[in-house]
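Section 5: illustrative case.
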């Protein structure tokens, strides 16, 4: 079958796009969105025939198993002709199989709730927390704490729980009951150079609980590694301390794995690096490597039982539905995506190649003082750019954009975090496919090398 766009010329397609499409995050007066037409493995082609090594997994950390996977397309096709949809109030074999396999990878978790995007998965989690507050605590324990620099999605309530002023400042008023606590970025320590940064950052979290009143706080939502806010890895001991504080005050721990989930960080889930056991885990991007839209809100049996163990006439089940949470293309793609990750040992590859890539980036850092910090885990790495490695003054935000542009000229697509710190757009982001080879890693590093050397010339 011909692709539907083959009946048009390149110029016609570009004109249609210009006339009709409002692109995400684009300043249309001055920016032109690239038109991407094909992908295979780690490579993607634009409409002009330019080929790129995509070290951004589709721009925003999605295509974990790479482009052009025929077996996923075939699994989705077979499912769609068999049964494309039935509302999530009914069971389907494919959703049952995927949920069951997913839970095998998440010891301690009990049930999977399906929806379509990271934001939606987080909204479900917030509704679960609010309903528990209503059921168990007369509505009192309704507050949800979120961390400065973390992002949890695009809806007004997800923005209400996002610690990035630059994403929020034009969209208030916000949903009440969401409270911010301080970030945990050691490179930007708010406590000065200290040995026990993780402990102090966790104490800052506890201080906010005490200020708000522990009997009013129902949950905390946290990214295991902050993504768009600057690729911020938690300091030593931090997440364990956060978990202990949650247990002390009977607060649910919700981990947002929308970016980190499905092998990206060299473990199946980011939280698994840090020895914690969340009550709620949300995930989206890598769940089906963006071959279909699917997201999951996964809860423990303890959380689920609060909704299940009541008589039907009390109508205290989870009063939520997501129309397209019943689409079967998502779980069909996700099941095959999971099989590929297991069969090709992609989690191990992400861990192993992540170490290799990080070592090469540290090599660049020793040659270019503009690279202030190299951080991240597995194939989720960030480079924070600074004017001066001693003062750590961030570079002007146009610099990161220039590096991204120079790398693209060199045939490599890299990303840039939204704003890595306060007002600075100064962190580059590398998130290649989990299939990354040594040769591809070297090409990414060569592109960065040539970009930095062009910049300082
Ligand atoms: N959580 C995190 C950590 C994210 O990075 C994102 C998206 N970048 C979301 C939630 C929202 O996901 P979506 O865009 O699919 O709604």
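Designed sequence:
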């Amino acid at each position: 079958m011909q692709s539907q766009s083959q009946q048009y010329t390149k110029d016609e397609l570009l004109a249609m796009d210009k006339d009709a499409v409002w692109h995400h995050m684009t300043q249309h007066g001055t920016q032109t969105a690239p038109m991407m037409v094909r992908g295979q493995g780690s490579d993607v082609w634009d409409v002009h025939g330019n080929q790129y090594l995509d070290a951004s997994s589709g721009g925003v950390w999605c295509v974990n198993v790479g482009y052009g996977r025929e077996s996923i397309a075939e699994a989705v096709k077979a499912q769609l002709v068999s049964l494309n949809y039935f509302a999530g109030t009914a069971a389907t074999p494919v959703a049952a199989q995927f949920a069951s396999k997913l839970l095998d990878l998440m010891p301690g978790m009990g049930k999977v709730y399906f929806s379509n995007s990271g934001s939606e998965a987080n909204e479900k989690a917030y509704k679960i927390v609010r309903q528990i507050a209503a059921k168990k605590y007369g509505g009192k324990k309704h507050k949800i704490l979120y961390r400065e620099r973390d992002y949890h999605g695009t809806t007004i309530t997800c923005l209400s729980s996002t610690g990035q002023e630059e994403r929020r400042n034009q969209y208030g008023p916000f949903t009440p009951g969401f409270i911010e606590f301080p970030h945990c970025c050691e490179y930007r320590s708010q406590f000065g150079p200290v040995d026990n940064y993780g402990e102090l950052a966790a104490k800052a979290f506890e201080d906010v609980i005490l200020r708000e009143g522990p009997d009013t706080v129902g949950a905390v939502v946290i990214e295991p590694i902050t993504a768009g806010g600057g690729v911020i890895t938690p300091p030593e001991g931090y997440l364990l301390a956060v978990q202990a504080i949650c247990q002390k005050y009977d607060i649910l721990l919700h981990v947002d794995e929308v970016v980190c989930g499905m092998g990206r960080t060299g473990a199946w889930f980011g939280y698994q690096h840090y020895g914690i056991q969340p009550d709620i885990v949300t995930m989206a991007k890598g769940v089906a490597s963006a071959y279909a839209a699917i997201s999951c809100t996964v809860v423990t049996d303890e959380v689920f039982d609060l909704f299940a163990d009541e008589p039907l006439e009390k109508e205290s089940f989870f009063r939520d539905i997501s129309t397209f949470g019943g689409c079967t293309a998502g779980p069909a793609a996700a099941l095959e995506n999971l099989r590929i990750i297991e069969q090709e040992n992609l989690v191990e590859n992400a861990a192993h190649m992540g170490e290799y890539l990080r070592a090469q980036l540290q090599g660049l850092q020793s040659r270019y003082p503009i690279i202030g910090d190299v951080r991240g885990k597995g194939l989720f790495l960030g480079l924070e750019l600074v004017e001066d490695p001693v003062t750590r003054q961030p570079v002007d935000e146009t610099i990161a954009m220039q590096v991204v542009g120079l790398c693209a000229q060199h045939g490599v697509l890299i990303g840039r975090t939204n704003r890595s710190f306060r007002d600075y757009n100064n962190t580059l982001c590398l998130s290649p496919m989990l299939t990354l080879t040594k040769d591809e890693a070297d090409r990414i590093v060569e592109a960065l090398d040539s970009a930095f050397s062009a910049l300082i010339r």
